[in-house]
User: What shape does this take?
Amino acid sequence: METISDRILMGPGPSNPYPEAVAALTRPMLGHLDPEFLDVLDVTCDRLRAVFRTENPLTVPISGTGSAGMEAAFVNVVQPGDVVVVGVNGLFGERMCDVAERCGAEVVRVDAEWGQPLDPDAVLSAHPSPKVMAVVHAETSTGVRNDVAPLGAGKGDALLLVDCVTSLGGIPVEVDGWGVDIAYAGTQKCLGVAPGLAPLTFNQRARERQIERPHSWYLDLGMIAGYASTAGARKYHHTAPVSMIFSLHSGLGALLDEGLEAVWERHSACGRRLHEGLRKLDLDLLVEEQHRLPELTTVVVPDDVDDAAVRGRLLAEYGIEIGGGVGPLAGRVWRIGCMGHTARIRNVVLLLSALAEVLGR
Amino acid sequence: METISDRILMGPGPSNPYPEAVAALTRPMLGHLDPEFLDVLDVTCDRLRAVFRTENPLTVPISGTGSAGMEAAFVNVVQPGDVVVVGVNGLFGERMCDVAERCGAEVVRVDAEWGQPLDPDAVLSAHPSPKVMAVVHAETSTGVRNDVAPLGAGKGDALLLVDCVTSLGGIPVEVDGWGVDIAYAGTQKCLGVAPGLAPLTFNQRARERQIERPHSWYLDLGMIAGYASTAGARKYHHTAPVSMIFSLHSGLGALLDEGLEAVWERHSACGRRLHEGLRKLDLDLLVEEQHRLPELTTVVVPDDVDDAAVRGRLLAEYGIEIGGGVGPLAGRVWRIGCMGHTARIRNVVLLLSALAEVLGR
Assistant: This one.
């Protein structure tokens, strides 16, 4: 008989999904053109608008994981030669550069040290007239929150493109309020749903600059909108990932029943408790308090401690997953996620106790 | 309380998933780097090799639906100016042209009428030295099976790229035996798993001609292989759709426990029974017997019958979904699928009875 483990997922994602999201995965399959499924899809898009805080009609779950959302965001607006300013202070900013370059963009990087926030003025003044200005709201690789509102206020003629993979449903995201033109997320972080879908939203400004025939057929938003949009007749594009959409529909339902602000506060309370507890264990946090995410915390691995051994013992002895560092932070930090259904005080208390035992503190 | 319907899915897909595949969707979430998940992924890839009948080390589930598999197949080998011969006798051959053109290919079309098979000699002689020769094995839009083996035998220096979305797990597919270099499928047809993943296999010949940095970051097979391949250290690319992979793992397990040949025979028996029953109802089948798929049958809508009304009554009164025609066949045919867990004689018997009642025959 195969082993089936039941982890407490406190790494950089996936998080533990909401029970409602898990139960919905087994809802009986429907065809992707079944009126009952299309109702579920429409409600799912409405719920995504609620969590993105947007009125954008083009708000859909892309049929891939968060990185497919990133690619869809770029490939639909960036053509060869376009100038794209990218704020880079972590792995996902780096990934944005790679994706934009593959679209043929002239990428203008604005770097900040991993663990430090971006300087919005540096992003705004990096180029006189970029087509796109792109930043990661919550850097999963570092635990840093980058300020988005100043970029929306100063973006001028550029499109503001924001990665909300680790922020959506965990901390305030205000797509319309901040002047964000394009945003995407993933389901497996603070939304508390399995990985596999990428919520994406494009405002009217972004739609007006959409490329008519992007390199990607699969991520062609014009065609996706023709299927997912409720306005006009549905036109088949690709078969929707029906079970995952059932799950997102129900996970978002649970989240909105609790209340978006209440969910933000729950993530915030878990983060505060976690940060206090880690300091009591004499552990240093990489990111300064004012830029620190509640849902993803980077802890400096003490000099005399074996990074991987601690993670291994947490997994083997307590069934708790935490993440290691990546890039320049590999071996230097642990990444502790507290997102979605994982964001419960009981999980924080357990992790702190387990960590104290493993570290002998 | 929301309505939750339980359909018998006899359209062009999705089919009803195997109970084992459904149950596995709720297996407790694991991280995408958890050793227990990586074991499941490795076994899933082994099982895919078994159903593809290949030894190709690079055999993976792509994190998107079947069309993402198509895009991954083209985007990793086709560069601007490359000649790609595409056999077109249905919607998915058309889609291949679109995808190849977006890669910058010079597409050489070889057309056959919708409902007729491709002429292998015409495909082989369409261009003296194409880089890629691409065909759809089982055309979901028409119910036609195109012969693949003669193309493998005569392909010369070209890469043979085959769409197995509606054939894999339903009728014989012999990737290695037929000399197929690149093949992809979808989970939601004869594999009897929810839509959301695209099994893909590349042989050594195809890997040697892989583009180093394709337009798509998300579908970059070099990077995907670095994560999914068991050879060497795993390198994070994107977060795997964990629950869907659990489901594919279990669905393939059920299929292989039954036995691949037994599953082919079950699909074949359902097809024979369906075709006989339809003829007894005095209905004409679009495709000649020797090219007709057992798993996807196109039925000519009689002149005096309202296409959509019949489909609507089957859905509303019997909970059975069948599909309408697309493209030049819109309004002219019904598409009846009998794939995966749907491929049971009891479903065929029920459909035939329901159709007889609705048609008053």
In short: Chain B has a mean pLDDT of 97.
